[in-house]
Amino acid sequence: MRVRRIANRPSVCDSQDLGSKPFALETISTGSFEFDRSLGGGVTLGSVTLIGGEPGIGKSTLLTQFLATAANGGHRCLYVSAEESQPQVAGRISRLGGADSSIGILIANELEDIEEQLLSYKPEIVVVDSIQTVSDSSLASSAGSVNQVRECATRLSDIAKFEGIALLLVGHVTKDGTLAGPRVLEHLVDTVAYFEGDRDSTLRILRVIKHRFGPVGDLGMFEMGDAGLADLENATGVHLVDRVEGQPGSTVFPALDGRRVMLTEVQALVVPTASEQPRRVVTGLEMSRVLLLLAVLEKKIGVRLHNKDVFLSVTGGVRLSDPAADLAVIAAVVSSLVDRPVAPSIVFIGEVGLGGEIRTASNTRQRISEAYRLGFTMGIVGVNFVEDVAGVSTVRVKDVRAALAEASLHFR
Ligand SMILES: Nc1ncnc2c1ncn2[C@@H]1O[C@H](COP(=O)(O)OP(=O)(O)OP(=O)(O)O)[C@@H](O)[C@H]1O
Ligand SMILES: [Mg+2]
Known about the structure:
Elements: H1 15-19, E1 27-28, H2 33-38, E2 43-44, E3 48-53, H3 59-72, E4 77-81, H4 86-95, E5 104-107, H5 111-121, E6 125-129, H6 146-163, E7 166-172, H7 180-185, E8 191-197, E9 203-211, E10 219-225, E11 228-231, E12 250-257, E13 260-272, E14 280-283, H8 287-301, E15 308-314, H9 326-337, E16 346-348, E17 351-352, E18 358-359, H10 364-373, E19 378-382, E20 393-397, H11 400-406
Parallel strand pairs: 3-7, 3-8, 4-5, 4-6, 6-7, 14-15, 16-19, 19-20
Antiparallel strand pairs: 1-2, 8-9, 9-10, 10-11, 12-13, 13-15, 17-18
The chain binds adenosine-5'-triphosphate and magnesium ion (MG).
The site of magnesium ion has 3 residues, from helix 3.
């Protein structure tokens, strides 16, 4: 039997009547500033959120912590696990600090069982961990197949919308995102967030790529520890914590990740080449862009690099595709070449044109303000940035030569 509570015949209703329904767009705080920030305030009742991520990244941890907070806040919560046992789920709740109020735990992988329990337990917030392990036995295909995942998610969403439940679906993705599950769900759900991070690092990032209740692009940043996930303090500067100041070849660029400024370090090492062909080894930057910038340096500034190997890297595993990083890359290369450090208070923001001219980057003001918050007091930027930012000396430069001179990078 299919549990179906939605009226079979659609009917028109008045938007003003709907707007007064108690669950209309009510948002529940997750208890985490970073989680709330990425979702524009919290989790919305009557909505469906997909949290995707690689195995072991911390999806169950994130959602368990949220349910514990919500239960403590008086909300009725249900954790549906289709891949772990009751003691495992209960153990995680207690290991992560526990909830003073109880959380319902349902171990089930049959869709109908889950539907029935949603209707009888009457939760406000439900986590289904994971959607790929739930299946409808009336379908021929196996759990995790595109058909099953789509059917199960659609039917659970129907109930969530009708009953005003905040439904959070966990979806596994592999590194290349090929697994059928989450990708086919993206258009079915209201919010899609991916939980990312490096296995070797404790940093975790929640990246919202679709959100029907607010803007997308804000990131949530966390640190994974023994006690679970904690909001990352000073997230803007997380990639600079191991930076050694005063090193030749190191520059700082305020990158934009979504709508958030992240300060990143660009490192260059320029050494005499030992082979006939000079080597260009690049990590975290686009090789074609780097080759273009090196050509500009040779042609417009007269920097001789044909007999030099150039190694470039962005620290913290960050990938920069933003052309506003050009100036930081060029300054890092020249700084290494002349073996002279750039003053540690400087950030570089500017796109470099083929003629060596500097184009003003988008969101320059936001980038400089955030850099100032972390102690940087000088921004080398394009001439078209006309605003003043309190506390920061903004040096406007029209071309690469002027930028290098302002950073005291003289050569020859
Ligand atoms: N007993 C424990 N003590 C400390 N940390 C733990 C413990 N168990 C798990 N962890 C941490 O939690 C991480 C796994 O988190 P979690 O189970 O939330 O991931 P997941 O994304 O739900 O994984 P899966 O895809 O297997 O369901 C581990 O990598 C580990 O860092
Ligand atoms: Mg899990």
